[in-house]
């Protein structure tokens, strides 16, 4: 083996060891002050039960996902334009649970905004199904990708299929 082959082998071994170590530790949480410092079990998660065994959130962190009025959400759910269809609401909850509770979300941190994630790979089928589930529901957000809860609503409510979703600039 030449020097280059040994170096490559050493780099690969170190990379494999790091991956194995991360898998054993259960991941990390986004370090933005809104997530737990490290993931741990949260057996009482109701809305985001997928992450109950290893979570970056607590039940209190996700009160607004289940539309419980609290100091966190100030009673501002994502359905400001009326109730969402159950399928659309299910997709929004699923995405919110991933961002807030999944130790895997920290794999795609935004380089300049600590509380954001960026470039999370999604299957085309997931995006298509999400759009199909929400296309007829109403929103007042002008850009669903940047403002899914309509925090910056202007104008009237429109169907999601009429709203821009420019993910390339997030």
Automatic annotation (TrEMBL):
Residues 1-25 form the signal peptide. InterPro entries: Folate_rcpt, Folate_rcpt-like. The keyword ATP-binding does not apply. It comes from the Eukaryota. GO terms for molecular function: riboflavin binding; riboflavin transmembrane transporter activity; signaling receptor activity. The keyword Signal applies. It holds the Pfam family Folate_rec. Residues 28-163 form the Folate receptor-like domain. GO terms for cellular component: external side of plasma membrane. Coiled coil: none annotated. Keywords: Disulfide bond, Signal. Belongs to the folate receptor family. PANTHER family: FOLATE RECEPTOR (PTHR10517), RETBINDIN ISOFORM X1 (PTHR10517:SF25). This is Retbindin. It comes from Scomber scombrus (Atlantic mackerel).
